[in-house]
Write a structure and sequence with these properties.
With about 140 residues, the chain is of the alpha+beta class. About 35% of the residues lie in helices and about 35% in strands. The protein has helices at about 10-20, 25-30, 80-90, 105-110, 130-135; strands at about 1-5, 40-45, 55-60, 65-70, 70-75, 95-105, 115-120, 125-130.
Length: about 140
């Protein structure tokens, strides 16, 4: 598995994710909320040796915060999700506080990757990455 970091309007990003962000099953897995991007986003996209996209995590970079909101991982695969989160946190943690609006079904995976709960809603949990939490779990 490879994970690439792409800017929010990179043509490679569209090639890798367009077929997913317009797929009704992928949208349903995201509670029918559309995926968004901008020049202020970076995306971490996982793909396999056959160049199939396995998942993606966009993060909006704004005011020294990197906010994950709306992501996708094929088959809710925790291994792929954690690999993308590890790459994202490694790349961004020195310059940004990393926050996530996490779907309830992925809370345990995010916890395993060093995130802690800040606030809970009905379908989502707001989480924050902490290197201290990650070290405790390793």
């Amino acid at each position: 598995m490879e994970i690439v970091k792409l800017n929010g309007e990179d043509t490679e990003l569209y090639r890798r994710i367009a077929h997913l962000v317009m797929n009704k099953d992928v949208l349903a897995s995201n509670n029918n909320y559309p995926f968004k991007t901008s020049p202020g986003h970076v995306w971490f996209v996982a793909y396999d040796s056959e160049d199939r996209t396995l998942g993606f995590i966009p993060a909006e970079l704004k005011n020294r915060k990197a906010t994950i909101n709306n992501y996708y991982v094929a088959h809710d695969d925790t291994h792929i999700l954690c690999a993308m989160l590890a790459r994202l946190t490694e790349e961004l943690r020195k310059e940004f506080a990393i926050l996530s609006v996490t779907q309830n079904r992925h809370v345990q995976a995010f916890r395993k990757c060093g995130f802690s709960i800040m606030f809970e809603w009905e379908k989502y949990v707001k989480m924050i990455y902490s290197e201290d939490d990650q070290e405790k779990r390793s």
